[in-house]
Design goal:
The complex is a heterodimer of chains A (about 130) and B (about 150). With about 130 residues, chain A is an alpha+beta fold. Chain A is built from 3 helices and 10 strands; from the N terminus they run βββαβαββββββα. In chain A, the strands form 2 sheets. Chain A has a 6-stranded mixed sheet with strand order 7-1-2-10-9-8, with no helix packed on it. In chain A, strand 9 and strand 10 form a beta hairpin. The termini of chain A are far apart. In chain B, a hairpin with a 4-residue loop joins strand 7 and strand 8.
Amino acid sequence: MAPERTYLLSRLGRFDVLVEAGWVEEMGSERDALASGLPVLDVAGRLDAEGDGERVAAKLVDRDRVGWLLLGPRAELHRVAAHDLRGMPRWARAAAAPVLGVAVLAGRSQLAFELDLDRLLEELREVDA
Amino acid sequence: MRTLAELTLAAGEPWMRFRCGGAELAVPAQQVERLAPLQAITPVPLVPPRILGLMNLSGDAVPLLDVARFLGLPTTPWTGVRAVLVCAAERYRVGLVCERAIGVEHISPSAIGAPELAAPERVRALAIGELATEAGVRVLLDLDRLLDEARVGA
């Protein structure tokens, strides 16, 4: 059996993004995130993706770093086999994009981008500063 | 810029001809891995418009370059059949999106002139030679330079 990882898959405008579930302490609504007093980062805005309406939020925790990412209107758990994950092609990788790689997901023609959560947690820390 | 000797050697190789933005262009056929039909494109965050996105090609994410847009050639509506020339340059594997792949042709070195007529300027700057034909000018592109200059962050 091929090794797998579990991700939250969410649609942000033009982009499908993957958030590795192991970093997520809890899920909530946009209101929960804004009311928490913790730093909040709008991922759609960060990727220059369109997005509107109420969004779900994922609370990330890593040692002393904590904060919420606003995702798309929905997020679902998705298991991704290791061999379906690819590094982002260097030729087309924007330095500003917090993206680690891409994944081929079964049954979907569009590729999904794995978010660089370590980098986003650092950005949450800057939001908080 | 390649030397005349390098140009002569390169010109002895087969070239893959294709149409793009109303122009006839060619790249070294040995650097073209395969031809593929244009399939579903995944847009990429925060890249310039010349990068059309990624295409899933047998499980690999291949970035796509809108050649016409990058070279400043007229862009045509996204209708009809488009072709992707999947190219492997020294450091990159990239799909060149064009209107039509014409085929491979061996071109005699003596038929190749210095790039003087090719237009616009960006096409001329990335050409290693050109060939006058009855149908117009065929431009032979330096694929390594093209991909190097078109990459994100270049």
